[in-house]
Amino acid sequence: MSRYNASLAILVAAVLALAAIPAGAQVIPCPNSDIRLDGPFLAQYPSAVVDTSTGSLFGPFHAGYNLVTGTMVLEKPIGSGADDSYVFPRDRYSIEGLPPGTVVPLTANLDVNGFVESTGECTAPGCSGTFGARIGDPFAWYAEQSVSVGQTGRSDLVTQLQFPLSITVGEPAAIAYEIYYFVPSDGIGHGGVAHATLSFSGLPAGATLVSCNGYSSQPTPTRATSWGRLKTIYR
Known about the structure:
The longest helix is centred in the first third of the chain and has 17 residues, at 3-19. 11% of the residues lie in helices and 54% in strands. The protein has one domain (3-234). The protein has two helices and 14 strands.
């Protein structure tokens, strides 16, 4: 089972459990988010803001996300070997400021800026490294783009992925997004640095988009905080 299907199974079970909760009972918590660094080091986090790293012979693997600002970062040392590293945030989003039952069409935008690079150490014919990003709902990725390099070179991915959806006032909608690096088992010497930011467009006048983890479409001083400042606070 893929990591996305496994996460889907967990989320579906949580949704079914929520449907069975009587009125007035405690609501399920916000969904967890996943970070995998350096292959086997997978962790799930209930926190809205996470910044984490792990050391290696080639330098630190670093990853983080902030669901309040919709930002994430992933750094894989360029000299490192085969692994599957990713940042995979999940959150539930609601519309406020409009009558209950109003259907609001909008677009979730994921602005991506990253690259994958090879040191040229790997000489096998199949050597490669991939950097990619994707966005969708809990049941399927809607949009995805990736770039790859072989034995040598660098490829950059600077793009915006768009996910059109509709949210009914009073009915939160789940959104998942991800940036990742993948190097096959016989690869070595591939890595890079990537950043991505989630935003929304198409909200009607009077509507505010908020999330379970504290995102808000209304500008606040918190949203203006730099990623470097957040790393200082939450490290």
